[in-house]
Amino acid sequence: MNKYYVKKTIEVAGVIFLLMLLIPGPVMSQKKYEPVNKNASPEAKALLKYLYSISGKSILSGNIDNPKEPLWFNRIKELTGKYPAVWGGDFDNLYRNGGADALVKEIFKRHRDGYLITLMWHNGRPQDNPPFAWKTSVQGKMTDAEWKELITPGTALNKKWEARIDTIAMYLKRFRDANIPILWRPYHEMNGGWFWWGDKKGEDGFVKLWKMMYNRFVNHHKLNNLIWVWNANGPRDRENDEAYAYELYYPGNDLVDILATDVYHADYKQSHHNDLLKLGKGKVIALGEIGEVPSLEILSNQPMWTWFMIWYGYIDKANTPEQIKDLYKYPKTLSHSDVEIN
Fold it and tell me: Does residue 310 sit in helix, strand or coil?
C-alpha cells in the first residue's frame, strides 16, 4: 500500500472515531429522524430521508440565485459543465427584484427540473413597513421593550408580526399545494448581532421567536411541506462582528430537522462542524451559506456536511475558477444530474 492510501486510511479512521465520540450510538446505525412535524407531507419525508441517506457519504452542491435571471447557476455551468443540485432563494424578493411572484414562478420551474429548493427570509423589523431598508430595518435594532412586546401574544407588535408571517405563509401554501418540499431556513445567523433577530439569548429570546413561527406555520397554516433548517453562523471572535456559541440560541431537537451554519472568510473551523453534530445528536448538518468554498482537505476532515450553498457572486468574488472546478470534480460532490429521490 503506498503512502497516499496509508495517509487516507488513517484520516478516515480518525473521522470515524471522532463521530463515535460525538454522536450517541454507533455512527452506522444512528437513528434516522422523522421530520419534527408529525404531519409532514410524503414529499418532505422523502427529502429528509434522502438527505440522511447521503449524510457522511456525499455533499450536495448549491447556490443562491436571482429569480429573474439565473446568473450564478449559469456561471457554475460555465466553469464546471454542471449545475448545482440545490437552488437557493430569498423571500426578501417579496419586496425586491420583481416581488414574490417571480420567486414562486422560478421555484415551480426549478422543482419541475429536479432541483432541491432552500428558502430564506431577510425580513425587516416587525415595527417597520415595506420596502425595508437594509441597514436600518433588516439590520436594525430592537429595544428590550420592543422585543418583549413582539413575543407577547395579542400586542400590537405581535399582531403586526403575525400578519407578515401570514403573508409569507400564503406563498408557502402554493408550494404545499403543488407537493413541493422546501428546506426552510428563516431568521438565519441568529447567533450574530447584525440582524434585528440576532443575539437574543434565553427562552424569551430567539428561541421564543422560532417557536412562534413554527407554531403559526405548522399548527395554524398546516405547512406540512417544510423541512425546518435552523441556520446559525460559524462562531467567531471578530471585533464588532462576533458570533456566539450555537447552543445559546437553539430551540431544541423537537423543533429542528436540520442544523446548518454559515461560513465566510474561509474560516472552516473543525468546531463549526463538530459542535453542530453534538448539538443535533445525529441530525443532518449543512453549510447554509458560504463565501470561499472549502478545500478538499477540509471536506475530508468535516465529512458530515450534507450540502453547501455559495452566496450569489461569491463564486468569483471569493474564489478562483480552479477552486470551483476542484470542488465540482471532488468525487463526493453531487451536482444536479446526480440527485435522485424516491
Answer: strand
- Would you say residue 15 lies in a domain? no
Whether 75 maps to a domain, the answer reads: yes
Q: 123 lies in a domain?
A: yes
HSE-CB at 293 with a 13 A cutoff on CA atoms is 30
60 has which bridge partners?
307, 334
Per the structure block, which three cell numbers stand in for 26? 454507533
Q: What is the pLDDT of residues 48-86, one digit of tens each?
A: 999 999 999 999 999 999 888 889 999 999 999 999 999
Residue 206 domain boundaries: 31-338
CB 78 within 8 A of CB 321: no
Chain centroid offset of residue 14 CA? 27
- DSSP conformation letters of 160-182: HHHHHHHHHHHHHHHHHHTT--E
Chain centroid, CA 88 distance in Å: 9
- Domains in the chain, number: 1
CATH code (residue 106): 3.20.20.80
Q: Which residues are catalytic?
A: 189, 289
- Omega of the bond prior to 131 within 30 degrees of 0, cis? yes
- Kindly calculate the radius of gyration of the chain based on its CA atoms and give it in whole angstroms: 20
Confidence tier at 331 by pLDDT (50, 70, 90): very high
pTM above 0.85, yes or no: yes
What is the per-residue pLDDT across 188-201, written as a single tens digit (0 to 9) for each? 999 999 999 999 99
Q: For residue 141, count other CB atoms closer than 10 A to its CB.
A: 12
What's the DSSP call for residue 33? Answer: P
* 116 within a domain of the structure (yes/no): yes
How many residues in the chain? 342
